[in-house]
Amino acid sequence: MTGETTPDLADAPISPPLLLTVPMAARSLSMSESMLFRLLKTGEIASFKIHGLRRIRSEDLDLFIARAAQGETP
């Protein structure tokens, strides 16, 4: 060894996930999964699939929350 140290991942800051599953997103919004699926179906919250798995970007949840706070949701 040359005396180099590798970073200890236990000391690394924990960042929120970039992509959320439906259950994770529903929990984040404090709503049921069925309500979240309605919002996804109407396009109020954007989502996409990766190899058949539905994912929601955390930024899209932030946009939905901002619109809701401004009264821009139905």
Task: Note down, in words, how this protein is organized.
With 74 residues, the chain is of the alpha+beta class. It has a single domain (17-69), classed as Multidrug-efflux Transporter Regulator, Chain: A, Domain 2, CATH 1.10.1660. 41% of the residues lie in helices and 14% in strands. The chain has 3 helices and 3 strands; from the N terminus they run βααββα. It has helices at residues 22-29, 33-42, 58-69, and strands at residues 19-20, 48-50, 53-57. A 3-stranded antiparallel sheet has the order 1-3-2. Strand 2 and strand 3 (53-57) form a beta hairpin. Helix 1 (22-29) crosses helix 2.
Key traits:
elongated, alpha+beta, Multidrug-efflux Transporter Regulator, Chain: A, Domain 2, 3-stranded antiparallel sheet, 3 strands, 74 residues
Spell out the blueprint of helices and strands.
Blueprint: E1 19-20, H1 22-29, H2 33-42, E2 48-50, E3 53-57, H3 58-69
Antiparallel strand pairs: 1-3, 2-3
Which fold does the CATH topology refer to?
Multidrug-efflux Transporter Regulator, Chain: A, Domain 2
On the 0-100 scale, what is the average pLDDT? 89
Count the E strands. 3
Sheet with most strands: strand arrangement:
1-3-2
Shape: elongated
Proportion of β residues?
5-15%
- Kindly name the structural category: alpha+beta
Element string (H = helix, E = strand)? EHHEEH
The CATH top-level class label: Mainly Alpha
| Low-pLDDT segments | none
